[in-house]
Amino acid sequence: MAGSMKEIKLRIKSVESTMQITKAMELVASSKLGRAKERVEHSRPYFETLYATLFDIAAADSEFSSPYLAKRETHRRLYIVIAGDRGLAGGYNANILKAVEANAADAPEQGYCVLPIGKKAVEYFERHNASILTTSFAVAGDISVSDCFEISRLVCEEPGVSGLHNLRTRRIGDHYAIEMHVRMPGAMTLYEAHRHATDIEQNIKHAFGSSTHVIVHLEPLKENGAYVEP
User: Fold this and answer.
1) 168 three-state secondary structure
2) pTM value > 0.85
3) Cα separation of 167 and 148, whole Å?
4) What are the residues facing 60 on neighbouring strands?
5) Which of 155, 151, 142, 214 is nearest to 179 (CA)?
6) What is the C-alpha separation between 225 and 205, in angstroms, rounded?
7) Is the pLDDT of residue 43 over 80?
8) How far apart are CA 51 and CA 55, in angstroms?
9) What's the CA gap between 55 and 65, in Å, rounded?
10) pLDDT-derived band at 111, boundaries 50, 70, 90
11) Which of 59, 75, 145, 192 ranks highest by number of CB atoms within 10 Å?
């Protein structure tokens, strides 16, 4: 009996310790969420002004025409689903995924596809065999949108590069890790392709720091879903 009481006390102490850890994590998450919400609220006036300006421009010009403003029948939906990378926000992840499934229940005959952002979103839709547009954003990194544009610019300015896709970025401590797939002409020699890949790596390290980890995958050009032979 004494042994059982000791085990129970140790178990209670272990649970209390876990509760303290999760409480601290909850406070940190709440603080981050508050800062993110504040940034969104501060950007709202800029969005409202820009929206009103574009609306006035479109309304003033009767001859204005754009495929982005044309009304058309919807045959297929795209859901951009942002979830977490870990299971610590279980309620948030579950509610987001349930909301998508509920909304997609009345999708058109052609169905829908998803663009998942975050590890949990990617895993969920892969497990349910959903139509996924891309899994390039499986890890939500700390690199900003402007950084991604800068990476794309650096790569596409390299002579011989004909396309860039599957750009993945993440942060490891104080350093960046950047991975990409680059398309080049199939007739290019191995020496030339390697030289271009090295130049891309050096340009990115010059922009983001010498400790940046860069991986460049080389591919031949692609047309109509098939690689182009030299």
Assistant:
1) strand
2) no
3) 8
4) none
5) 214
6) 32
7) yes
8) 6
9) 13
10) confident
11) 192
